[in-house]
Amino acid sequence: MDPILINKTFVAKAEATETPGEFTALVSAFGNEDSQGDVVAQGAFTKTLAEWIIKGRPIPAVWAHQFSNPFNFIGEYTAAEETEAGLKLTGLIDFENPTAVQVHKLMKRGLVVEFSISGLVRDYELIEKDDEDSWWPSLLIKDIDLWEAGPCFKGANDQTELISVKSDGRITGRLGHVSKEGRVLAQKHVDALKDAHAKLGEIIAAAEPAPADDDTAKAVTPPAPDSAAPATKSALTPAVRALLELS
């Protein structure tokens, strides 16, 4: 089973309290399906939290997964635990960082109310679904190598919350091996995309104009639509639309 890269975002609620720069958030909820169709199982963070303790380093608090800018490292987590509800982290804002100060203000005012985690899924099971319109496999996530967590703008899971904020948290790939946030598609999805690729080629070929006469361009009256022939719009099957979205 190959590891899978993930970014997971969760809705949060802010409450102001007293200790300078400290905040607590339930950054991952257990047992409920998020907007991507995934479910994080209880115990998914047990191994990674033990690994962070062995490293002797704090888990980074990063604004919206923006690793390329060092000022987006807005603080660190001083405590982490798995509860029955999910992964709860307690962090400390770096008030010497102007980006962290601004994010802290937004959290206190309720303008930023969501958290996101990123990491590597090391163990999972595929969740079988009957929904034929679903193009991406859903996962039961059983073990995550947690890289970081931090506040961000938009979320995928409504079962998490920012417990307190104290004063002064895809598409890449190629046809035949398409991934969403690192996921490999199920074979039925790959086959459907190959079929979509062929159909899209037919549509493009039919839409190209015939070459003009060398001497004089002649007006051509288009033939009346054939009721038996499918319209171009109907030719854009879900498979074709999915391919267009990937392009």
Question: What can you see in these coordinates?
Answer:
With 247 residues, the protein is of the alpha+beta class. 23% of the residues lie in helices and 35% in strands. The protein is built from 5 helices and 13 strands. The chain has helices at residues 46-55, 98-109, 187-207, 232-235, 238-246, and strands at residues 4-11, 16-17, 22-29, 39-40, 59-62, 73-82, 86-93, 114-127, 138-152, 161-166, 171-174, 177-180, 183-184. The strands form 3 sheets. Strands 2-10-3-7-6-5 form a 6-stranded mixed sheet. It has a 4-stranded mixed sheet with strand order 1-8-9-4, covered by helices on one side. Helix 3 packs across helix 5 (238-246).
Describe how the helices and strands are arranged.
Elements: E1 4-11, E2 16-17, E3 22-29, E4 39-40, H1 46-55, E5 59-62, E6 73-82, E7 86-93, H2 98-109, E8 114-127, E9 138-152, E10 161-166, E11 171-174, E12 177-180, E13 183-184, H3 187-207, H4 232-235, H5 238-246
Parallel strand pairs: 2-10, 4-9
Antiparallel strand pairs: 1-8, 3-7, 3-10, 5-6, 6-7, 8-9, 11-12, 12-13
